[in-house]
Amino acid sequence: MARPMNSLPVGDTHDRRLVNFASALRSLRERAGEPSLTEMSRRSGVCTAALSEAHSGHKLPTWRTVHGYVHACGADATAWRGKWDDLRLAQETSLVDTTHAALMRRWASTQRITPPQIKNEAELARLLDHMRRFRGLSFRDLERRSDGYSHHTYWAVLRGSRPVTSNILVAMLQACSVDPGLAQRWLVELARVRPSEELRVLTLLSKFKALRPQRHLRRGPTDARPPSVQVQYFSGSRPITVAEATVPGQDPVRLTGPPAWTPPGR
To answer: Name one Pfam family in it (predicted).
Structure first.
């Protein structure tokens, strides 16, 4: 028989949405006959500590943990994904300023990760970190979903201790499955706030495949997941390197302004 669960948090200091989510997980477990955490771990491959924390109401569990918890109770995890996404988005928007919170809500409602007019490099790094969180990706997830950059590099870039380069930006946009047309707009914003990247941005834009927006990104009003099939921006399977982005026999050129962006298909 399963051990009794600890009481859920009470009081105004706790996130009621998180507590309600934990309560729903507990109810699911009860309807499944209250299997022990050890048995649930065996069924799901998720450790007992993570399963216990999932229904504690203190911290939002990862999607992998929620999926394992629900699967171990014999239920379909599909319906739970939307609940988890809604809760995660609510938590993420509560941690950022009002303007960026509104932007993330617009990303969720439209499923188009459109860049705003960015003020400087520091804001660009913050927005990219919001994008990572919006997609529910860890730094190691970024590393796994892209070629050439470690999770340490992504951490340094998004924390502002390393600059955002055009190639790092492309790798991250691909990892977050940003539509090719919108990815070009992010590159234009990079060129505007970091003029030293203008030439490389122009070269990258010329190499983009002529793709229309990816219809498979639209899954629902609050689904922030990156699709299982990753977007590829170029003919190959990787972003071009810095060497490939250099124009042979030509010195770096200072442009008078950012490159004009033309939507794909126009």
So the answer is: HTH_31
Residue of higher predicted confidence among 100 and 231: 100
In a domain, 143, yes or no: yes
- Of 34, 54, 87, the position where a domain reaches its end is 87
Residue found by looking up tokens 């804001």 in the block:
123
Integer angstrom CA distances of residue 73 from 35, 51, 76, 80, 220: 8, 12, 9, 13, 26
pLDDT tens string 13-41: 667 888 999 999 999 999 999 999 999 99
CA angle 116, 117, 121 (to 5 degrees): 105
113-119's contacts with Cβ under 8 Å and 24+ in sequence apart are: 113/176, 113/178, 113/179, 113/182, 114/182, 114/185, 115/182, 115/185, 115/186, 115/189, 117/189, 118/189, 118/192, 118/193, 119/193
Same domain for 78 and 123? no
Give the closest residue to 107 by CA, choosing from 231, 261, 232, 221. 221
- CA–CA separation, 191 vs 102, rounded Å? 24
Give the separation between CA 219 and CA 21, rounded to whole angstroms.
Answer: 22
Of 62, 58, 73, 63, give the one whose Cα is nearest residue 25.
Answer: 73
DSSP 81-130: HHHHHHHHHHHHHHTS-HHHHHHHHHHHHH---------SHHHHHHHHHH
**pLDDT score, position 225:** 54
Residues 185 and 262 in one domain: yes
